[in-house]
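User: Hi! I'm working on a homework problem where we have to compare a predicted structure to a textbook description. Could you give me the structure for the chain below?
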Amino acid sequence: MQAALVFPDLAPEVFTITVGSYAFSLRWYALAYMAGLVIGWRLVVALMRAAPLWPEGRAPMAPGAVEDLLTWVILGVIVGGRLGFVLLYQPAHYLANPLDILRLWEGGMAFHGGLAGVALAGILWCRRHRVAALGVADAFAVATPPGLLLGRLANFVNAELWGRPSSLPWAVVFPGERAGTCPEGWAGPCARHPSQLYEAGLEGLVLGALLLWLAWGAGGLRRPGLATGVFLLGYGLARFLVEFVRAADAQFVTAANPMGHVLRLGPGGLSMGQLLSLPLIAAGLVLVLRARARARARTPG
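Assistant: Happy to help. Predicted structure tokens:
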């Protein structure tokens, strides 16, 4: 019989307060969002206070301006993340039930949509305040991985976004009927890749450590666009690779398409997560190459 880890007895709520017939619950996922935003805010403030890290020894904006920008970023995350999920993953359901779009407490956020929302909010804020958008983007690139780490850990606690069936010794038996349904003939418990933890490690720990080193140890912020490029390239590659072992979203799975591919490529195909990661990889590569080219152009000789 294959070895497998049993999912721990974790509640998705941190606590619940009941007043009369009303109940309020703080969920781990919401706490992860809030903690990620606070950590990111403090990291950006620290970067703005470290003037020597930036070109010509000047940070792109004053530390006190970060709080105002954070308000725009929060709106961008929520609106972009929710609309991204609605439009990319379940458009038919929300077209038939438009009021369900407002039911944020039930989950349903897309990282790619949230990233687009943050980018738009940041560009508008920078134009309004005449701030160099690329420098601000670099600071936010450095500050984002902690939120990704906490968000993926919350996905694990919620027993959601698990991976494909696996016989590896660290595979996890997740609760729920769908998680417990493995292909016919599967031997042993229906254990799955803990893909949330893979993403937490790659997108959060590895990419976060690389960007912190790039900013504080390698002078990367003196090359505008480099940190942003590394973040987009790193996240895109990490997400693309983990999608190979992450279970397909239920709405894309049919009898004729059990792997949930949204783009067919011969006998295989790409998932929605992989398809959306390709532009991030391309944009990240362009930014990295442009930052390196500008640095070489400024170097004498």
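For your comparison, note the following. The chain has one domain: 5-60+132-298. The CA atoms of residues 180 and 190 lie 5 Å apart. Good luck with the assignment!
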